[in-house]
Amino acid sequence: MNTTESRPGGILTLRVAHVIRETRDAVSLELAPASEQAKAVEYRPGQFLTLRIPSDLTGSVSRCYSLSSAPHENVPLKVTVKRTPGGYGSNWLCDNAIAGMAIDALPPAGVFTPASLDDDVLLVAAGSGITPVLSILKSVLSAGSGHCTLIYANRDEQSVIFAAELADLSARHPDRLLVVHWLETVQGLPTRAHLAALARPWCDREAFICGPGPFMDAASDALIGLGADRKRVHVEKFVSLSGNPFETAAPERTDSGESAAVEVELDGQTYEFPWPRQRVLLDVLLANGLAAPYSCREGACSACTCRIVSGQVEMRHNEVLDDADLAEGYVLACQAVPVTDTVQVTYS
Ligand SMILES: Cc1cc2nc3c(=O)[nH]c(=O)nc-3n(C[C@H](O)[C@H](O)[C@H](O)COP(=O)(O)OP(=O)(O)OC[C@H]3O[C@@H](n4cnc5c(N)ncnc54)[C@H](O)[C@@H]3O)c2cc1C
């Protein structure tokens, strides 16, 4: 039996083609799909993969890693993993990933991605938060016409991931890319006031922020304080999944109780199902045999994001979609329950 086709969400098996030591505590893995899976790994800049990491203790753990490669550059898929002190998954990958190894992954997912590569963007990253931001930056430079300003904070010079690549990009695009480095060893921790001072000239741009929680709070507060439109400030939170989508059985089908009706467009096909009012959309779709995408199932990662075309739902929990996403009708299928009697949803 082919596991890729039989499991919800379509598990992929990727081969580690190269391991690149980026800094003392970060590695990049170049990942190659089997040729028949090439379409399934198509991605947008800023999206992430969910990887299955072996564990003697639990069989496996799942962790999300943003793609640091750019989809428009015809280069291998690349994720970049930074060690979390005491963390299991990141250290396992940094210590054990070798060329030739096979690793299970869920297809690319996430909404931390620009609507247009022709718009000017402000990118604010700290530490491993550079990964999705670099993908956006390279995509804008290679496939769009936008200008990029990157404010990039790190502990010290040795911990700057992609320092050489950023220097090269700055040299090649002096009129479209400005990189502002901030080193804690030199300037101390970047505060809201520091970030506001740096960001002021570009605060009317679409902004993408990624890094540790307090850094992202300081950066988004700084931008909002400067008058930026909240809907144009996007953040990507790096959290560890507590569930394991690779080892979760598909939910049972139950048609009992009061139901709404849902029409779903997924992978070019349209389906209709009763939607029991107490069940979340993802469970309804999986129970009916659809390969709907998902990862955390706890409202924290955005892998299951879909868009409401008509009708209304409410989410039980949402840590990841921002005001801009909500205004465009995006919802998390793993948290959505129906409000209206009929709901139309699309994954396109
Ligand atoms: C959308 C998204 C994108 C992300 N992108 C990136 C990225 O580009 N780069 C990056 O570096 N990080 C990224 N992250 C963060 C990443 O997913 C992890 O959260 C991070 O690497 C820390 O994971 P960890 O397992 O090392 O640490 P922790 O989650 O802190 O690991 C500790 C946990 O592992 C358990 N554990 C300990 N030993 C074992 C064992 N033997 N078996 C099983 N469990 C064990 C412990 O109980 C504990 O719960 C991203 C996260 C998200 C949500």
UniProtKB/TrEMBL annotation:
Transmembrane segments: none
The protein's required cofactors: FAD
InterPro entries: 2Fe-2S_ferredoxin-like_sf (IPR036010), 2Fe-2S_ferredoxin-type (IPR001041), 2Fe2S_fd_BS (IPR006058), Beta-grasp_dom_sf (IPR012675), Cbr1-like_FAD-bd_dom (IPR008333), FAD-bd_FR_type (IPR017927), Flavoprot_Pyr_Nucl_cyt_Rdtase (IPR001709), FNR_nucleotide-bd (IPR039261)
Annotated keywords: 2Fe-2S, FAD, Flavoprotein, Iron, Iron-sulfur, Metal-binding, Oxidoreductase
Domain 2Fe-2S ferredoxin-type: 260-348
Top-level taxon of the source organism: Bacteria
Residue ranges occupied by any FAD-binding FR-type domain in the UniProt entry: 9-115
Keyword Iron listed: yes
Record-given protein name: Ferredoxin--NADP reductase
Biological source species: Nocardia amamiensis
Source organism phylogeny: Bacteria, Bacillati, Actinomycetota, Actinomycetes, Mycobacteriales
